[in-house]
Write a structure and sequence with these properties.
The chain has helices at residues 19-30, 52-71, 135-171, 177-182, 185-197, 201-207, 221-232, 242-245, 302-305, 311-319, 324-329, 333-340, 349-362, 365-368, 407-426, and strands at 74-84, 87-96, 103-113, 116-119, 249-258, 262-275, 280-292, 295-299, 439-442, 445-448. It is α+β, with helices and mostly antiparallel strands and 449 residues long. It is elongated, with a radius of gyration of 31 Å.
Length: 449
């Protein structure tokens, strides 16, 4: 008998581990292989009177079941069975290796012919097995189907609770419990973003509050877990999760509004690639950090939570959370970044070019950002020339009034240009060694190749 450790909660059930159960497990285990032929498996006993439309529906159902088994890395274990002469009803447990929501009891009908048990094609039913219309036989069939339905619900509920318990036991080891409890909203958001950049999907779920979920939680955890796992594999339809997990994306955290139970955090993402319906490279996203009994936790915003919706629904979900002032505030990201990160300098141009080249090859743009040229502080700037100086250009000849230039916009523009260059350059460097080849210098300016 397999997976005995999980059967303690099934001890009250009638019978376990007979020949019908082994047949069902054999059929399901074969579905794990990609070599398995699509449609209803050959070991399944389907009636010869089933028409083409029903056959097509059955094929589709078994294909979906096979996809679920493979995608969720489902494990099976013996449940229980009930035998009535040549008929049998079998329940087996199925659970995902990663997601407690993907845990259920599967019910199958079986028929014994010529000393061989065959599995019915319809889960939880004897339909399409060609049993005929004998009243006494139909009565036995109905009794077995009622038994399967009732036991499936009862045992399935216990199975989900046990799967959730095992899931939490595994997840609780990922983050220091004291940090989870005492971290401020900003620290929570910083840890969330760091986990995403590092590709730590399970930790990302912890910071979203998966450890505090209850048996009847109103939060749609199944969708959140599924979207997080899919997004971290960059399999989301809108292709926006790469802002969280791909190297070469600049992320700056800006504070937002706050009350006792919730704080909004504006995160500005700057990438060399475009995202979203409006194809922006500078993307503001509002995260809500909410307080629960276990501490502050991140609520996944619509921009990422709805990343599998069609383009219009995804854009609307984002627009409901982001306002015009957020678009304006995100232009401050360069100034905030420079306040939080001290500039890095090199003794000569070749050294800094080699540094950038190494980071480019490794795909770590964030390591090169501190080396970007920064405008000197206001107090260190050279005084402007006397307006009465005859060499100063006539204001009428100046196309753009300096007062109309937003310094924040100009500053972030420099970072945007660097991100675009980085994305183009890094995309063509696979397997190529890079470094500074030649440097041309004139005074305080240099050009490197």
């Amino acid at each position: 008998m397999r997976w005995l450790s999980v059967l303690f909660f099934l001890s009250s059930l009638p019978l376990s581990g007979g020949e019908p159960t082994k047949v069902v497990l054999s059929v399901l285990e074969k579905l794990k292989s990609k070599k398995q032929q699509p449609g209803v498996p050959g070991e399944v006993g389907i009636s010869g009177f089933v028409g083409p439309k029903t056959q097509s529906l059955l094929n589709e159902a078994w294909n979906q079941r096979a996809d679920w088994i493979r995608n969720e890395k489902v494990e099976f274990f013996e449940g229980f069975e009930k035998v009535d002469r040549e008929l049998s009803a079998v329940l087996v447990g199925a659970r995902s290796a990663d997601d407690p929501e993907e845990a259920e009891m599967m019910a199958f009908a079986l028929r014994l012919e010529d000393d061989v048990w065959s599995v019915g094609p319809v889960e939880g039913s004897f339909n399409s097995m060609g049993l005929g219309f004998d009243k006494s036989l139909r009565a036995r069939v109905s009794e077995l189907e009622r038994w399967m339905a009732a036991e499936r619900v009862t045992a399935g509920d216990r199975l989900k609770k046990e799967a959730l318990k095992r899931f939490k036991e595994r997840m609780v080891k990922l983050v220091d419990p004291e940090l989870l409890k005492s971290a401020s909203p900003r620290e929570v958001m910083e840890n969330f973003l760091a986990a995403a950049r590092a590709g730590r999907t399970e930790e990302l779920l912890v910071w979203q509050g998966v450890l505090e979920r209850g048996d009847h939680d109103e939060i749609p955890w199944e969708g959140i877990i599924s979207m997080t796992r899919k997004g971290m594999k960059n399999q989301d339809a809108r292709n926006v999760w790469r802002l969280l997990n791909r190297p070469g994306v600049m992320q700056v955290l800006l504070d937002g509004e706050e009350d006792e139970s919730e704080k909004s955090m504006l995160v500005s993402f700057l990438a060399g690639f475009s995202t979203g319906r409006d194809s922006k490279k500078l993307r503001p996203v509002i995260f809500r950090v909410r307080k629960n009994p276990g501490g502050w936790r991140v609520s996944l915003p619509g921009y990422f939570a709805k990343a599998d919706e069609d383009q219009w629904d995804h854009w609307r979900a984002h627009q409901r959370e982001v306002h015009f002032r957020d678009e304006v505030n995100t232009e401050r990201m360069a100034s905030v970044y420079e306040e939080e990160h001290a500039p890095q300098r090199a003794v000569n141009p070749a050294e800094i070019l080699d540094r950038v080249a190494r980071d480019l090859f490794d795909g770590t743009m964030e390591k090169s950002l501190p080396y970007l040229f920064r405008d000197p502080p206001e107090e260190n700037k050279e005084p402007e020339e006397d307006p009465e100086d005859e060499e100063v250009a006539d204001p009428k000849d100046v196309l753009i009034d300096a007062d109309d230039i937003d310094p924040e916009v100009e500053k972030v523009k420099k970072y945007r240009e660097f991100a675009v260059w980085w994305a183009k350059a890094s995309g063509s460097l696979k397997g190529i060694k890079v470094g500074a080849k030649k440097v041309y210098q004139s005074g305080d300016l240099a050009l490197g190749v």
